[in-house]
Amino acid sequence: MDGNRHPLFMPVIFVGGLIFGFGLGFSHMARPEVVLDFLQFDDFGLVFVMFGAAIVSGIAFAVVPRVRDSAPLTGDVYGRRLKSFDRNVLIGGAIFGVGWGLSGICPGAAYASLGIGNVTILWAIVGMFAGAYAQGVWRSQRAPRETASIDAD
Amino acid sequence: MVADLVSLSLTAELFPNGIYRYAVGGLLVGLGAVVIYVGTGIAAGASTFLESTLSYVSKQSRFQRYRSSRDWRIVFTVGIVLGAAVYAVVWQGGTWTTDVQPWRLLVGGILVGIGTRIGKGCTSGHGVCGVGSASRTSIVGVMTFLVVAIGTAQLVQALGVTP
Questions:
Q1: Which end of chain A is less crowded, N or C, counting CB atoms within 10 A of the terminal residue's CB?
Q2: A134/B contact by beta carbon, under 8 A
Q3: CA separation for the pair A89, B121 (Å, rounded)
Q4: Shortest Cα distance from A58 to chain B (angstroms)?
Q5: The pTM is what?
Q6: SS3 B136
Q7: What do you get for the CA distance between the two ends of chain B, in Å?
Q8: pLDDT for B84-136, tens place per residue?
Q9: Contacts of B84 in chain A (CB under 8 A)
Q10: Which of A87, A81, A14, A90 is nearest to B133 (CA)?
Q11: CA distance A135 to A141
């Protein structure tokens, strides 16, 4: 993955990020109030954001591997995003859920929120880095039994 | 006729802001993930950026494992910020700031930082790419954080915490 990357690798990542971020802005998911309205059952619109995005990506994950074997810019074999299931998925998911329900913010939406000029969101971004750092230090100290799997979340 | 009126008012109640912005926005979020997937084979998520970026300033093994992806994750995140900025300039008509109290954003952010990394993904990794991959782990992950988030948000509301 590193070293001699295709010259179009970074531009494609960037354009994907642009569209992704624009979508988060357009859908209003970059506004904590809108997310909280959804979680408090005042506006169910966010269902369309989550399912709309999952359906679009679902079509790609299903169709692209049948059309091509590997990605043009990396040579990586097209696969699905499959993580192993263990307790951490439930524990981490629950901790994330409390944070999401308290603040109305998740990582991607927080970055996009900065983009729509919401300077106040820096509180959440600083918090996310602090939380990620704390769990990273704690998990690095414990016996590194877990096999490293480098992929995207 | 009566049924039509009932369904109309119910729709208005469930979706006071309509569905256009949500549906279009959701399709675009998915499209952004698809562009990256088709070009590179990567199923991108937003929360790994937190740990991969920390590898620049910390030698902890937990962060160093993401070293190889840290550069493109910064590019991805800058893209997200700028894409939202394009929306703000062209459609939103300037900046928008939240009224949600800073302590909620900070404490919530800390929990989001811990939870997304321990739980192997966030709303985009599990919610968009994982669910799109029909991954059982991701579907369980999404159900977990969605149910807990709904419970938390309702509790916060019941306690009278606003904004």
A1: N
A2: yes
A3: 8
A4: 4
A5: 0.95
A6: helix
A7: 40
A8: 999 999 999 999 999 999 999 999 999 999 999 999 999 999 999 999 999 99
A9: 21-22, 24-25, 30, 111-116
A10: A81
A11: 10
